[in-house]
Each structure stands twice: as structure tokens, then as C-alpha cells.
Predict the 3D structure of the following.
Amino acid sequence: GNYRNDLLGLRLVAAKREESIGSQKGVKFTLQDMIIDECKTFIFAGQATTTILLTWTTFLLSQREEWQERARAKVLHVCGTHPPNAETV
């Protein structure tokens, strides 16, 4: 197909090529299965990265009281007395 020249488009072109090679070797998989697996990989990798980032952030904030105060002041400045939400974060 005629795909855009972005990450998904490049992966679709590669998957089409792999699909045709796989079908020649008798391997049964679909392009949709491959794309779903790729998306799952990105999601799980992103979750792990976010978890590590938040863990280190919490640890570093626990070690530096002045950083805690600055972070608290920033949250209060942005959110006021309301809890943070998707729009304020």
C-alpha cells in the first residue's frame, strides 16, 4: 500500500514485507496481528518507563526538602486548591 512516511507507515511497509516472506515459508500470521503486537510493545514499554520515572522522581524529592517545597508551590500555582487533573497536568 501507499503508507505515510512516519513510524507507523514504515512499520506497515516492513510488516507487509515480513508477511509475504512468512507466507512463502508457511507461517500463518496477519498484518493486523503484527501491528497489534507492536502497539502492545510500545504501550508496555511506555508504562515501564513512566513507572521508573515516577519512582526516581519520588525518591529524589524525598531526598531534597527544598525540591519538595518548589514542587508543592508549582502545583498550588497551577492547580490552586483543586486536585490536579488531565487539563492542569
Summary: The two ends are 39 Å apart (CA to CA). The chain has a mean pLDDT of 82. Residues 39 and 45 are 10 Å apart (CA to CA). The longest helix spans residues 31-63.
